[in-house]
Structure formats: C-alpha cells, structure tokens
Design a protein that fits this description.
The chain has about 170 residues and is of the alpha+beta class. The protein is built from 2 helices and 7 strands, in the order H-E-E-E-E-H-E-E-E. The two termini are about 20 Å apart.
Length: about 170
C-alpha cells in the first residue's frame, strides 16, 4: 500500500532528523529515536529522542491554486516537535533539552541554506519555517526536561488524491 503525501512528508522529516543528528556530523547528540505521533513514553525509550506530532488546527483554510478551481490546494502543515535528552548537571536539567533543541534547529537550518528550488523533502513541501521553541523543566507532563517547537511546511495536495506527490 502506498503512503499518502502527508505520511511521506512525516516519514521524511523523521528520517532526516534521525540520520542527520549525530556526533559524527558535529551535533551534541546521536539521536536515538524519531517517532511519529507517539504521545506516551516509558522508561524503555532510549534518549535522546524526538517525537513529531501534527498540530491541532482544524480551521485551516486552503488556498485553491491552478487553472481549475478545486484541483489543488495549498496549505500550511504545522508539526510540533518534542524532544528529551539525558545528561548534564542535575541542578540544570534543562541544559540537555536546550542542546537537543539546538541540534534540531541546526539540522533543519541546513535545509534552508542554500535554498533548494525543488522544495523540501524531495519536493513534498514548498517552504519551511522554524519557530523559536520552548524548553521546560520536569513537570506533570514529563519526568525529564524537554523542549517543544513548531515547524511549518507549505504543502500542495490534489483534492481527491491524497497519494499524489508530483505531476
């Protein structure tokens, strides 16, 4: 069974971050895992790890493009990236989360310069924007310090054909 364009994009994003973020490539960490849509984590999860979730924004209004009304829609696909890392000073638990968020930003920033005219992730997205992000100490959501940040990818889909990737 083929993957939809959005699932291909999500898989490409996770695979890119997992293979790019390594100490051999000059980052602070060797990323152990990049999950799609996982919201519950146990102690069995190896760190550092990230998860990519779709952002809640059901009120998106797509822009119709092309000569025939309704054949293709362009919209912003927003993902929330969460990340957790171990290490560092117990008094400053957030340091590792800051460093991992920096690694994710650096990896995504590599995609922006030089600008690839064919888009991002093999043309699955037209543009990429990266938000600043937030680091949080351990709390009721997580036993470890973590970060979250959103990215925005502009996507064009054919109405009625979620498997379409290119003409």
């Amino acid at each position: 069974m083929a993957d939809t364009k959005r699932l291909l994009l999500l898989k490409s994003l996770c695979n890119y971050l997992l293979t790019e973020i390594t100490t051999a490539n000059g980052y602070n960490f060797d990323l152990a895992a990049a999950y799609r849509g996982k919201k519950n984590f146990g102690k069995e999860v190896k760190l550092p790890a990230i998860v990519v979730l779709e952002n809640f924004n059901p009120d998106r209004l797509p822009e119709t493009i092309g000569g025939v009304v309704g054949t293709k829609h362009k919209y912003d696909q927003i993902y929330l990236i969460n990340g957790w890392a171990e290490g560092g000073d117990v008094e400053q638990e957030e340091d590792s989360a800051h460093l991992l968020m920096g690694d994710v930003k650096q990896a995504l920033g590599k995609l922006l310069v030089p600008r690839n005219q064919s888009g991002f992730f093999d043309g699955l997205a037209n543009t990429l924007s990266i938000e600043p992000g937030v680091v949080r100490p351990p709390d009721e959501q997580s036993e470890k310090a973590y970060f979250w940040m959103r990215i925005r990818l502009e996507v064009v889909e054919k109405v009625g054909d979620p498997y379409w990737t290119k003409d």
